[in-house]
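2024-03-11 09:14:02 INFO receiving multi-entity request
2024-03-11 09:14:02 INFO entity count = two
2024-03-11 09:14:03 INFO echoing inputs for audit
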Amino acid sequence: EAQVTQNPRYLITVTGKKLTVTCSQNMNHEYMSWYRQDPGLGLRQIYYSMNVEVTDKGDVPEGYKVSRKEKRNFPLILESPSPNQTSLYFCASSFSGVYNEQFFGPGTRLTVL
Amino acid sequence: SQQGEEDPQALSIQEGENATMNCSYKTSINNLQWYRQNSGRGLVHLILIRSNEREKHSGRLRVTLDTSKKSSSLLITASRAADTASYFCAPSGAGSYQLTFGKGTKLSVIP
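2024-03-11 09:21:47 INFO inference complete, emitting structure
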């Protein structure tokens, strides 16, 4: 089944404890991206990747890192999480860029205490 | 990146009625996409309309695009309780690498 998977789906952690949210797609997509969704603010893009080894900042990249070593994986790294990073995170992928249908993962609900 | 703005923010209708939501944007686009999000879940692509198209249909969905007014509308006909969700538009212009979503229209369909 064609899909985007994210792990973990739920995570409660404490301030400063490094964490990684994994994202994987099995559709051979070139483009991948991360969003966060907060009440009243909608979805905001954190980082995107046009292809392997090519990543760029979205609208809210502060406090996050990403890497794209393989085409299928696009992990989101929080080196030192803070409470303002408590949010619902979505990974998405598409065949090639933003002119195509985006496929979204199921989301990761992160709480930073 | 270009962001669409959905209107109204919330809409409540009875099952069987039609629901119309609108999207406005600021600069010229290549295409515009509509997505649906059920509560707390990932967005699901509904329809993509290109800048040279004026109308597109998919099942009970009808999307129109007016590039002169920089606006699009999504019509859901004969709504069902299962259509209860938030709906987002995402316009993209030439050379875009980012897809930006607005705050969405929250549709409630009452059985």
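2024-03-11 09:21:48 INFO post-check: The two ends of chain A are 36 Å apart (CA to CA).
2024-03-11 09:21:48 INFO post-check: The first strand of chain A starts at residue 4 and ends at 7.
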